[in-house]
Specification:
Layout (H helix, E strand, L loop, with lengths): L3 E7 L7 H18 L6 E3 L4 E2 L2 E2 L3 E6 L1 H9 L10 E3 L3 E2 L5 E3 L1 E3 L6 H12 L3 H7 L12 E5 L6 E8 L22 E3 L1
Antiparallel strand pairs: 1-5, 1-6, 1-7, 2-5, 3-4, 8-12, 9-11, 10-11
Helix pairs in contact: 3-4
Length: 188
């Protein structure tokens, strides 16, 4: 159950933007959650905005007090401490509403999808182009964080969608990014 939170506020400098630092911080959190096999820590972005589109510079972690303490005892912030200001672990305010933060995937590049199809199905470029028209591409309008896959070393954008606000908390599990399509986190 999500009863407590802490905030990690990235501090940009002349060499690194807030978005770059948030991506680095979120990437490290992902590795820590996967290595520790945590499914009980959710995340939110208190400065999430669709207009202008952005996640802001604050990453909020949600869980029980003991779970957050255990996570922060690990040295997953190594190399980031000069760029992050962390709050104490605090109880969630009584008046908090709830929402979900989930990953949203888009088909953003028809040419890439065609190349993948050609490799997977052994098709020619013409066959792949017929199967995957250019109209399949969608222009995402959601905030995202730029990450690097640890398994493939490929860079990618993790688009994040915030649900509408809800009065009731919904319990469940979070994925290795602290996201869930159904499990809520407090919003205040």
């Amino acid at each position: 159950m999500t009863t407590h939170y802490l905030e990690l506020n990235v501090q940009p400098d002349p060499e690194s933007s807030a978005a770059q630092l948030l991506g680095a911080l979120y990437g490290r959190l992902h590795v820590a959650l996967v290595q520790q096999q945590r499914s009980d820590i959710g995340i939110s972005f208190p400065r999430y905005s669709l207009n202008p589109r952005g996640l802001g510079n604050v990453l909020r972690l949600h869980s029980s007090e003991s779970t957050l303490r255990n996570l922060m005892q690990e040295d997953w912030l190594k190399g980031m401490r000069d760029h992050v200001r962390m709050t104490d672990i605090k109880p969630v305010p009584d008046h908090a509403q709830h929402c979900t933060f989930r990953r949203k995937q888009f088909k953003t590049n028809a040419e890439r999808l065609r190349r993948r199809r050609m490799q997977r199905k052994g098709e020619t470029a013409v066959q792949a182009a017929e199967a995957i028209p250019a109209t399949i591409e969608r222009k995402p309008n959601l905030p995202y964080v730029h990450l690097r896959s640890h398994s493939t070393a490929q860079s990618f954008c993790l688009f994040i969608e915030m649900s509408s606000l809800q009065e009731e908390q919904k319990s469940g599990v979070f994925n290795g990014y602290g996201l869930s399509p159904a499990t809520t986190v407090p919003w205040f």
